Amino acid sequence: IGKSAAEIVDVVTKTSRPLQLPKSALPSAIATDDGTSLFFAGPESVAATRKTLSGGPVKLAPHGVFDEQDVADLGKWQTRLPRRKLIVANGKLVEVATLGDRAGLVVHGTSARVTLPPATYDGIAASGDSIFLTSLDRSLYRSTMVTVSLAGGRAEVVSTEVFTGGAAGVATVPGHAYVADADGTLRIYSTSGRSPSLVGTVSVEVPR
Q1: Per-residue pLDDT tens over the stretch 20-31
Q2: Which residues contact 121 (CB under 8 A, 6 or more apart)?
Q3: Mean pLDDT, to the nearest integer, of 67-79?
Q4: What secondary structure does DSSP assign to 113-182, as a single string?
Q5: What is the number of alpha carbons within 13 Å of residue 189 lying toward its C-beta?
Q6: Sheet hosting strand 142-149, strand order edge to edge
Q7: Which H or E run includes 75?
Q8: Residue 15 pairs with which residues in a beta bridge?
Q9: How is residue 204 annotated by DSSP?
């Protein structure tokens, strides 16, 4: 996926076809559900788009974190570039949008939404009713993992952990979340509770 196009690959037939995307200043975010729908959004767009395999693109409801006037404000871009993260959790599209000092998470098809700490979110993962987001402040070499609970049809920030290092991504399996560090360390969390708890760290750096 790039700024204005993506490639759809069929791993069964080993064929591919291009998908034209709305032009954006930065690479778009993309997500899929059970294989019937594709969701995408440019970082500075005010609404994501849904495309089914058999139909054309349909604009979703605006995320409401920022609007067209905010996008035209150069000062907000200088504060923090826009970013977008998309993921499907429990059959619903979860959208994270940031620009300047604004950041928020919305769950499409519901009224659930929550304001997030302003940050450049680079990683997103879901497990059950929990959404995990990671960000990195490169100037301080400090990372943050934010956990949002979607339990009860509401969105609520239940945990914010700050640690030294360069978070490079987050992934989950039932019961655990894993945060990769740019230094070759893997942080392992238990997700059995309302908020994650650090179990330990392991080195995954490949020997030279």
Answers
A1: 666 777 888 989
A2: 83, 85, 96, 98, 103, 133, 134, 135, 146
A3: 95
A4: EEE--S--EEEEEEETTEEEEEEEETTTTEEEEEEEE-GGG--EEEEEEEEES-EEEEEEETTEEEEEET
A5: 22
A6: 121-127, 130-137, 142-149, 156-164
A7: helix 74-79
A8: 10
A9: -
